[in-house]
Amino acid sequence: MKLFIAGIASALLAGLVVGYAAMSLGFFPANADTPPSRLETWIAHHALRATIDRLAHKTANPLALNDENLLGGIKIYAMRCAVCHGAADGKSAADARGLYQKPPELAKHGVEDDPEWMTHWKIRHGIRLTGMPSFGKVLTEKDIWQVTLFLKRMDALTPKAEKAWKAVPSQA
Ligand code: HEC
To answer: From the CB of 121, is ligand 1 less than 6 Å away?
Structure first.
């Protein structure tokens, strides 16, 4: 039994030493212009899902669905988010094309199906090791709920909000 445990401990230690050596020799890519390995992508998605499950509060959006809040959300989106997530034309934002991970063009691959508490969490806390910043220190809670409301309703906006959304300049 002792021998077995010693065997496992040495295997783990050898793994750590090889991993450290590979990292020190530059074999774990830290550049942003090669696609991530499948293992890396799996770890990132799995860790994000687990973190959200553990930490996010499943609260409803406290704001009313009306023009004022939708227009507020669109204004914030145009100022802080379009540079990475693009405008209503769904074209990829030029400044974000070299980003790793690539931000989704939210007009095309939106989050209307996600619960609002989840989107709110991602905006407030950001997504580690991607370009998605945490906006908790930049935007107020109301701002974050407004932009969350807009993203949730992006495919079913009021006529006024639809007009404002279409007027956000393309980032392509
Ligand atoms: C500097 C670039 C950048 C900015 C600015 C940015 N994001 Fe992101 N965002 C990203 C990236 C990159 C991802 C993808 C993260 C990943 O792969 O998990 C992302 C992911 C997201 C997601 C999750 C999408 C999904 O399908 O799950 C939401 C929602 C989001 N961002 C909203 C916003 C909002 C709202 C703003 C503005 C307040 C914003 N982002 C600003 C880069 C950015």
So the answer is: no
